[in-house]
Amino acid sequence: LNDAISEEINNDDRALILADKLAIKNGKILTHNEMVDLINQLLQCKEPEFLPLNERVFLRVNEDFLNKFFF
After folding, report:
1. Rounded to the nearest 5°, which phi and psi values hold at 19?
2. pLDDT, tens only, 12-29
3. What's residue 64's pLDDT?
4. In this structure, what are the phi and psi dihedrals at residue 56, rounded to the nearest 5 degrees?
5. How many Cα atoms are found within 13 Å in the side-chain-facing hemisphere of 16?
6. Angle 9-15-35 from CA coordinates, rounded to 5°
7. Tell me, what's the pLDDT at 52?
8. Buried-exposed string 14-29: b where 16+ CB fall within 10 A, e elsewhere
9. What pLDDT, on a 0 to 100 scale, did the predictor assign at position 28?
10. What pairs with residue 50 in β-bridges?
11. What pLDDT tens digit does each residue of the chain (71 aa) get?
12. Alpha helices, DSSP H only, in the chain?
């Protein structure tokens, strides 16, 4: 039965399940080093700005972008 179930789960679904299981849980307090490591790992991804379902993780901005909001 487990083989039949696992055959129905494609690689994308497996990746989403694994990501959910390995995610940092809400409310967990990270050390400074853990935060820096996490950001470095994120920036090494092929497309660090987006989650697998195309949701934006963060937005890269430059000084001109910020000046439009503050000056």
Report:
1. -60, -40
2. 888 888 888 888 999 999
3. 92
4. -75, 130
5. 9
6. 160
7. 73
8. eeeeeeeeeeeeeeee
9. 94
10. 56
11. 455 555 677 888 888 888 888 889 999 999 999 999 999 998 998 888 888 788 898 888 899 999 998 88
12. 2-8, 11-22, 32-43, 63-70
Q: Both tokens of residue 61?
A: 């901005």
What are the C-alpha distances in Å from 41 to residues 36, 45, 60, 67?
A: 9, 7, 16, 29
pLDDT at 7: 64
**Secondary structure E strands in the chain:** none
Yes or no: say if 55 and 64 are a contact pair by the CB < 8 Å rule: no
* Tokens (6 digits) for 63: 């000084």
* Three-state DSSP class for residue 71: coil
Tokens 């910020």 -> residue: 66
The C-alpha atoms of residue 42 and residue 23 are separated, in whole angstroms, by 13
Given a contact cutoff of 8 angstroms between Cβ atoms, the answer to whether 60 and 49 are in contact is yes
